[in-house]
Amino acid sequence: MKKVSSIEEKKGKLFKNSFLESLTKANAWLAALVYFLYWLLLLCFHYNFESHSFVEGISIYLFAVLFWTLFEYLAHRFLFHFVTEQPILKRAHFLIHGVHHEFPKDIERLVMPPIPGTLLTLFLLGFFYLIIPSSAFIFTAGFVNGWAIYVYIHYMVHAYKPIKGLKFLWTHHAKHHYQDGSKAYGVSSPIWDQIFGTMP
């Protein structure tokens, strides 16, 4: 894989405070290790505290991976791209996603940093526990797996030249960034764009 030229790799800045700013950046492969450890922990907790058969566990896990793709689409479309003129909400939008659109080649901001990622993972685990207490660990493990697939597809689409056979993912996401930000919300899969009529 050839990395994209560094000429376009301008850096965005979110905070004047250097400590807060450092929490908003991530080395992609260090973050991958952290999330891999969380994934292993979730599977261990599932094994020790949940009583599903192997087939049930695999089915819930795969459903969670697929459910991630819908969540990804909806979050990207309605949370990351909400339009507002309220200053506080505009600032929140910039922190969450606007900075990425302004600096799409900033590779330090292509992956969720470990500290906010940890808080989000704990929140999701708690949320899923309220809804499906007997399957929260295995469902969250599958959801995190789907999240990881999305994150690293997104990272590669921005940081590397297209891979043969997967170029459609590069093209699809490039249309979202450089042609029409109200289309092509799916990153790991364009299927929900087809279903909901947001294909470019």
Question: What's the gist of this structure?
Answer:
This protein has one domain. 65% of the residues lie in helices and 0% in strands.
As residue ranges, the low-confidence spans are: none
| Main sheet attributes: strand count, strand direction, barrel closure | none
The residue-averaged pLDDT reads 89
> Could you tell me the radius of gyration in angstroms?
18 Å
Based on secondary structure, the structural category is mainly alpha
Through-space gap between termini: 27 Å
Number of helices: 8
Helix content: 55-70%
Written description of the protein model:
The chain has eight helices and no strands. The protein is mostly helical and 200 residues long. The chain has one domain (17-101, 109-169). The longest helix has 26 residues, at 54-79. The two termini are 27 Å apart.
Features:
200 residues; mainly alpha; 8 helices; 65% helix
Architecture blueprint of SSEs:
Blueprint: H1 18-23, H2 28-49, H3 54-79, H4 87-102, H5 114-131, H6 136-159, H7 167-178, H8 191-196
Helix pairs in contact: 2-6, 3-6, 5-6, 6-7
